[in-house]
Amino acid sequence: MRRSLVKKAAVLMSAAMVLTGCSGTAGESGRGKTRAQAEQDGKQQDREDVIVVMGPNSEPEAGFDPAYGWGAGEHVHEPLIQSTLTVTNKDLTIGYDLATDMKVSSDGLIWTVTIRDDVLFTDGERLTAKDVAFTYNTLKNTSSVNDFTMLKEAVAKDGSTVEFHMERPYSIWPYTMAIVGIVPEHAYGAGYGSNPIGSGRYKLAQWDRGQQVILEANPDYYGEAPKMKKVTILFMDEDGAYAAVRSGQVDLAYTAASYSDQTLPGYQLLSFETVDNRGFNLPTVPAGETSESGTPIGNDFTSDVRVRRAINLAINREEMIEDVLNGYGSPAYSVCDKMPWYNSEAEIAYAPDQAAALLDEAGWTMGVEGCREKDGKQAGFTLMYPASDSVRQALAANTANQLKNLGIAVKTEGVGWDTAYDRAESQPLIWGWGAHTPMELYNIYHTDADTGLAGYSPYKNERVDQYMDEALASGDLEESYELWKKAQWDGETGITQDGDIPWIWLANIDHLYWSRENLKVADQKLHPHGHGWSIVNNVDQWSWK
Predict the structure, then answer these.
(1) pLDDT tens across 402-416, in order?
(2) Among 54, 56, 422, 524, which is most exposed with the fewest C-beta within 10 angstroms?
């Protein structure tokens, strides 16, 4: 059974813990806290600052430059320091930030965006359409994280109007505009990432590499003034984050399910829903082929659709979430669960008997040692996971145990990313995905023109490709959602259980945080992949109570 969204930490300390304190007693605090803790709590509601802990991988290596991962890349978030043209609303539809109007030509090749005329960069210079055009043209040529192949050029028509001329129709362009921070043409160059000038809610006050980032409210921000005037981000590993919470030195810190049974005086455990999913690919073509670089392609066992469907039915996701994630997660059935373009036809019930029947039908009969066999071969495969990821390791082990009951022998293996991509062409690998854009579907399932197969695992379905191509070419963003749904399942074919099922999705992992009891964290959007900056998307709206 899934645990409650907010789990209150215990506020009473045991006598043993009290004895270990250097000063103060339970009687002095009244709540089992030290006098210092009690005094600190009494001051919280007057604060206008917050201290947040993220993992070391959340620190932007290249700084706060949109061209090199700030706001985009694997861990998508609002850039805070820079403004964006659009934003994603809580229901993941599109809203406006700098933009005041947006329209697209009938052929889908020109997007016209009107922007606010009252926006200043933090150096006092006005933000104009020229800065917008400069940003996009620069990122098209330099970005290491965003795909701008669909953009021909951006053109400033006047001070408040910018046109995006596209190489091809691209209906989901508003989602790209929601993650691209606008930089000043007059102040952009080498070193910008370390000393960014923007127009967002905050400005960079200090960056101590490997340690912390300090953001301060932008006094000239055009929107509602941030409630939190100062935001300090510390970068620590899980153990360090937990220790910082135990000592009461921070206000909010990321944590893992393995710590969720702990109780910490003065803190509560917050859990936020995500589309940060984990799942594994199943190569859909037989073994025997190789790529141009010599990489083996295909798997004889998983190439049978009946086998893939059986595996999907044989996974008890609720049990997996309870055993591996301590209850903090939700079953995953696709890469886009809960999104506006999600097709609920992907959902299935745990059905081991049906799974066994499918394997029987496919000719895989139970052998003497509890493993199915066919033509002298054993049913099974190697399930890889990133060697440094303990959660994916546990998910792999749980999957292996569950499939063993079905008569499928699964060997788990930790691998490095230097070899994982190539090996996934022939063996399943546990991946992490999840983004606020339908392109996640496209990137995983659409055929690559160069190889004739999908990008991350051997798969091809021309009708699925067609639906996604039509969705991108649609002149209406919301209407395109229906085409994305058809790519998943149209009643005859698709990527769901009754279709090709080339991927098995296991769980959407809740993002967990220790938070001071009197810190009011604003309502969160569904978090994407990456347990990091998403939490502070709306830190300007947080408050103390």
Answers:
(1) 999 999 999 999 999
(2) 56
